[in-house]
């Protein structure tokens, strides 16, 4: 997974920090934070995919081998076992991604001389860690339901596919049904509609969190709204995962 | 004596949820087979053999005893105090039927991981590896373990935290006869130290000289639990004696006896009669018979199981029951 992460995280930061970059709609990144925002697509595609791939059989593998029975027979309360599971899987993707993000920020500063303020860097890294956490929990939840590896990977990748690739289609379709001018991506009505619908997607909330550090972005969701959505996206899947773990049978 | 009871399960029950889809609710579940109203007292240092047909609920019961499955009904007590599921799990070590330990992790790391989960020291985990004979293989990766070694590792993990009760589900699966023998001796030495052991096995012959008591499980219900003698009397078994002599016993000597079995070979004559005819022994000696064998024959576990379930040998072997879905046949022959 490391080559993919290298390609998508520092690779994208390197590409977007090119002073002669030609972006659609003649967009020109004005500062390092904006470059990192553009490069966040690497987290959305590669980081979340890696999180899903690492965690997709976190429970189903143990179920298939019989080790799950032994784990469930241990006196450690299941909620603590659940936290250990999440931290173990999340940590194994979050730590390398955090390091690669730090490298990316240095690359951007070095290449374009646009150094990212510390506060923006911290928000960026926290938001990225959160989106990885959400996908890790989704994958573990799917893995706890799946009886074997095939279903586990199908559930997890299916969810990743929905939020990463199909969400645009879903958003556009709903916008069109609501009479929003979907042909014009700069239309304020469309942007607000898309922004609000993004609160229902982990990737959308991730971008809302990053946008709190950008100037002149208005997609109809306040910074507070983005933070509340992030808290909900953290608490609700965790609650369902713990509930599932308490009822888990081998 | 109450203080000899390591743990007591009173009227415990659990039903599996099974799929019961209907068009407007494809995820609908209903209660399926399981365990119903099982009472079981486990004495300190006792080895209990759990015997039952396929699908009788042995694994489900063992999982309940280990705290893996919740008790939907009933309770578990120790010294009159009710145990919660966390307390129960800390007192029971569980070895599942077959664990396919795999990966690049070493035995040492696996034991360390489970020692953390169990809340015991790493040194005690290493000591347990000596007990199960894996100390010299501590740095072997899980991928390179043989089936016998995997079973030993599972037993080692079950022994972490010095459990009061050890629950073993089909522990002899995949073991060669030498390993089985070593395993049995190990279990006996653990029982001597006061650890109670519940063991289920399809290898009934393996249980024959290992267990102190037998629990007969059928259709999710415990039909009987006790020593072979007590089960024999509760199931109405007649004591039988096997006699092997050098020549055929004269008819008048057997007049008042019920000969259950007679086999004649070139060298010997084998009789199985109902016990209690000690005068026959005197007659045989006085009539200069060479007595090759004179022994009381205990019923085999298969015979006990057949008697308890009302099934014949073939049905016991081939029928797969769905526990709790079929009415219970009690020892009195009534159906509930």
Textual characterization of the structure:
- The complex is a heterodimer of chains A (250) and B (336).
- Chain A is built from 12 helices and no strands.
- Chain A is globular, with a radius of gyration of 19 Å.
- Chain A has 250 residues and is mainly α.
- The longest helix of chain A has 35 residues, at 78-112.
- In chain A, α7 (78-112) packs antiparallel against α8 (118-145).
- Chain B is α/β, with parallel strands linked by helices and 336 residues long.
- Chain B folds into 2 domains: 2-105 and 156-233, 3-Layer(aba) Sandwich (Rossmann fold); 240-297, 2-Layer Sandwich (Alpha-Beta Plaits), CATH 3.30.70.
- Chain B is built from 11 helices and 14 strands.
- In chain B, strands 6-7-8-3-9-10 form a 6-stranded mixed sheet, sandwiched between helices. In chain B, strands 2-1-4-5 form a 4-stranded antiparallel sheet. A 4-stranded antiparallel sheet of chain B has the order 12-13-11-14, with no helix packed on it.
- In chain B, β7 (165-169), α6 (177-192) and β8 form a beta-alpha-beta unit.
- In chain B, α4 packs across α5 (147-159).
- Chain B is globular, with a radius of gyration of 24 Å.
CATH topological fold name of the largest domain in chain B: Rossmann fold
Runs of chain A with pLDDT <50, length 5+? none
Whole-number tally of structural domains of chain A: 1
Spatial separation of the terminal alpha carbons of chain B = 32 Å
Uncertain segments of chain B of ≥5 residues (pLDDT<50)? 322-336
> Biggest β-sheet of chain B: count, sense, barrel?
6 strands, mixed
Question: Any key phrases for this structure?
Answer:
heterodimer; A: 250 residues; mainly alpha; globular; B: 336 residues; alpha/beta; Rossmann fold; Alpha-Beta Plaits; 6-stranded mixed sheet; 4-stranded antiparallel sheet; 11 helices
């Amino acid at each position: 997974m490391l080559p993919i992460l290298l390609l998508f995280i520092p690779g994208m930061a390197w590409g977007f920090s090119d002073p002669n970059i030609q972006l659609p709609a003649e967009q020109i990144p004005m500062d390092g934070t904006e470059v990192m925002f553009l490069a966040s697509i690497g987290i959305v595609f590669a980081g979340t995919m890696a999180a899903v791939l690492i965690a997709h059989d976190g429970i189903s593998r143990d179920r298939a081998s019989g080790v799950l029975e032994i784990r469930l027979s241990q006196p450690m309360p299941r909620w603590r076992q659940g936290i250990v599971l999440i931290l173990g899987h999340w940590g194994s993707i979050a730590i390398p991604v955090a390091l690669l993000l730090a490298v990316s920020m240095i690359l951007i500063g070095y290449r374009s001389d646009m150094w990212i303020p510390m506060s923006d860097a911290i928000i960026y890294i926290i938001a990225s860690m959160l989106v990885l956490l959400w996908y890790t929990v989704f994958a573990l939840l799917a893995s706890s339901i799946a009886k074997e590896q095939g279903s586990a990977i199908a559930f997890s990748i299916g969810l990743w596919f929905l939020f990463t690739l199909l969400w645009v289609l879903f958003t556009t379709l709903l916008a069109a049904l609501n009479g929003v001018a979907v042909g014009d991506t700069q239309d304020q009505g469309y942007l607000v509609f898309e922004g609000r619908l993004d609160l229902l997607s982990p990737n959308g909330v991730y971008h809302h969190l990053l946008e709190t550090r950008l100037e002149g972005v208005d997609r109809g969701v306040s910074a507070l709204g983005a933070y509340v959505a992030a808290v909900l996206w953290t608490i609700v899947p965790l609650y369902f995962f713990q509930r599932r773990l308490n009822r888990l049978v081998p | 004596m109450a203080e000899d009871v390591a743990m007591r399960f009173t009227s415990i029950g659990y039903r599996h949820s099974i799929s019961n889809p209907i068009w407007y609710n494809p995820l609908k579940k209903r209660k399926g087979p399981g365990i119903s109203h099982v009472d079981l007292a486990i004495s300190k240092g006792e080895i209990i053999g759990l015997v039952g047909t396929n699908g009788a609920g042995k694994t489900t019961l063992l999982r309940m005893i280990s705290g893996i499955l919740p008790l939907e009904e009933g309770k578990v007590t120790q010294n009159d105090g009710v145990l919660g599921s966390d307390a129960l799990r800390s007192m029971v070590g569980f070895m599942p039927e077959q664990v396919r330990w795999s990966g690049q992790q070493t035995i040492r790391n696996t034991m360390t991981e489970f020692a953390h989960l169990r809340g015991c020291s790493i040194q005690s985990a290493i000591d347990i590896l000596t007990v199960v004979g894996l100390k010299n293989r501590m740095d072997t990766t899980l991928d390179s373990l043989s089936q016998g070694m995997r079973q030993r590792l599972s037993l080692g993990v079950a022994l972490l935290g010095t459990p009061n009760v050890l629950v073993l589900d089909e522990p002899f699966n995949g073991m060669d006869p030498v390993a089985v023998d070593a395993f049995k001796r190990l279990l006996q030495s653990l029982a001597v130290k006061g650890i109670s052991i519940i063991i289920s096995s399809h290898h009934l012959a393996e249980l024959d000289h290992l267990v102190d008591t037998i629990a007969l499980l059928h259709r999710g219900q415990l039909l009987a639990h006790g020593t072979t003698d007590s089960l024999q009397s509760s199931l109405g078994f007649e004591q039988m004696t096997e006699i092997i002599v050098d020549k055929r016993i004269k008819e008048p000597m057997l007049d008042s006896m019920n000969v259950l079995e007679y086999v004649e070979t070139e060298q010997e004559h084998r009789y199985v009669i109902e016990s209690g005819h000690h005068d026959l022994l005197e007659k045989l000696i006085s009539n200069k018979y060479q007595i090759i064998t004179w022994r009381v024959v205990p019923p085999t576990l298969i015979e006990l199981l057949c008697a308890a379930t009302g099934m014949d040998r073939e049905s016991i072997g081939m029928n797969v029951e769905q526990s709790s879905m079929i009415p219970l046949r009690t020892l009195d022959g009534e159906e509930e």
